[in-house]
């Protein structure tokens, strides 16, 4: 019998989409999950009580505030900018998507510096934006002269700079951010600094934001606010840029409950900062312990650490950790990250279990 093509006659997706793999992180049933850079510590109990109270105030039969005015005002006040310089969306990923919908597209390009956050390239391709790849050094730092030369040559609509960089944890010096920002302005492009992990780092690009500079800084509630389950992020940039993002965002894309939760979280800044401080201290302890093992470890300004077992197959080490019910991110097959694993900073107990498992594997 002749095989039947079940897809015959169906509408085909774009050719480039059909060949594209989605962006996914493994979700396995393990005792210790240190693979997705979530906060190991939940928000305080008082936050959950406040969210419950906020839920009762939601007018469920009406559409949410399309402008998310109060949420944007509260975020703006936290960062010392105007509300019209803030754009909020369903996680920083939707913020990045809207940025590329507005400024990318066919005939335009985006520059990334590899290895870096894979979703920058993925979302660029989804929106039909060409991707131009620059290279980081072996220590994952950026050569500003090479980066500026690439931007001068490619003249991208958007240049992405992830700082702290994912997956390396590298924090870009302020001088590098400033020089790339000058180059973006001279080539009529935008510089997007992805600061998903900024609270764990010593400085931020937010200081460069004003209403003339072509700079977008993206943030997320997922990491520092321990709200990965809420999917809320935002951008701070010039008012003219925010106005363009509002044109491409779906109507009422930010639901009323999410807006209320985002506002509620901002009442707990001290708790957030204490949680960040605890994670930074634990990051130092984890990196120090890893430094005593036969692994290469890179300095990190985020809530994770990148490492490479010496003389061992990274994928095999990852599998043996899973066998011991510990899940980290397997980066070993990623370009430029041969043999590397990325471990999220967990609680002291979680990290000790990971370290004990790793020591046993490497013994």
**What is the count of DSSP helices, taking H or I runs of 4+ residues?**
12
Classification by helices and strands:
alpha/beta
Widest beta sheet: strand line-up: 2-8-7-6-5-3-4
Helical amount among residues, as a percent range?
25-40%
Percent range for β-strand residues = 15-25%
Q: How far is the first residue's CA from the last residue's CA?
A: 56 Å
Rg over C-alpha atoms, rounded to the nearest angstrom: 21 Å
Give the CATH architecture of the largest domain: 3-Layer(aba) Sandwich
What is the number of beta strands?
A: 12
User: Which spans have pLDDT < 50 for at least 5 consecutive residues?
Assistant: none
Please trace the helix and strand order, writing H or E for each element: HEHHEHEHEHEHEEEHHHEEHEEH
How many structural domains does the protein architecture include? Answer: 2
Corresponding CATH superfamily of the largest domain: Type I PLP-dependent aspartate aminotransferase-like (Major domain)
Average pLDDT figure: 94
What is the CATH third-level topology name of the largest domain?
Answer: Aspartate Aminotransferase, domain 2
What coarse outline follows from CA principal-axis ratios? globular
Q: What's the CATH C level of the largest domain? A: Alpha Beta
Main sheet record: 7 strands, mixed
């Amino acid at each position: 019998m002749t095989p039947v093509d079940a897809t015959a006659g169906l509408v085909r997706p774009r050719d480039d989409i059909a060949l594209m793999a989605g962006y996914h992180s493994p979700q396995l049933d393990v005792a210790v999950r240190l693979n997705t850079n979530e906060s190991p510590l939940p928000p305080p109990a008082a936050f959950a009580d406040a969210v419950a109270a906020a839920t009762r105030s939601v007018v469920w039969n009406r559409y949410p505030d399309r402008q998310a005015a109060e949420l944007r005002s509260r975020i703006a006040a936290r960062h010392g900018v105007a509300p019209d310089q803030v754009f909020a969306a369903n996680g920083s990923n939707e913020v990045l998507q809207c940025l590329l919908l507005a400024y990318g597209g066919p005939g335009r390009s985006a520059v990334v510096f590899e290895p870096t956050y894979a979703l920058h390239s993925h979302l660029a391709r989804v929106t039909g934006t060409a991707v131009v790849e620059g290279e980081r050094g072996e220590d994952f730092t950026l050569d500003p002269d090479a980066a500026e030369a690439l931007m001068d040559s490619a003249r991208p609509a958007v240049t992405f700079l992830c700082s702290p960089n994912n997956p390396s944890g590298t924090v870009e010096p302020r001088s590098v951010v400033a020089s790339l920002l000058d180059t973006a302005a001279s080539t009529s492009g935008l510089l997007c600094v992805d600061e998903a992990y900024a609270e764990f780092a010593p400085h931020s690009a937010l200081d460069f934001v004003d209403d003339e500079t072509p700079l977008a800084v993206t943030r997320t509630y997922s990491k520092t606010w321990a709200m990965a389950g809420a999917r809320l992020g935002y951008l701070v940039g010039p008012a003219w840029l925010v106005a363009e993002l509002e044109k491409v965002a779906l109507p009422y894309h930010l639901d009323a409950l999410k807006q209320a939760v985002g506002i509620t979280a901002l009442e707990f800044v001290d708790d957030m900062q204490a949680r960040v401080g605890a994670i930074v201290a634990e990051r130092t302890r984890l990196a120090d312990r890893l430094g005593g093992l036969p692994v290469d470890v890179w300095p990190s300004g985020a809530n994770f650490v990148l490492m490479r077992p010496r003389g061992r197959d990274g994928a095999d080490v990852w599998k043996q950790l899973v066998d011991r019910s510990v899940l980290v991110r397997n980066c070993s097959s990623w370009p430029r990250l041969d043999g590397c694993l990325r471990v999220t900073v967990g609680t002291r107990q979680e990290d000790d279990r990971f370290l004990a498992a790793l020591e046993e594997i490497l013994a």
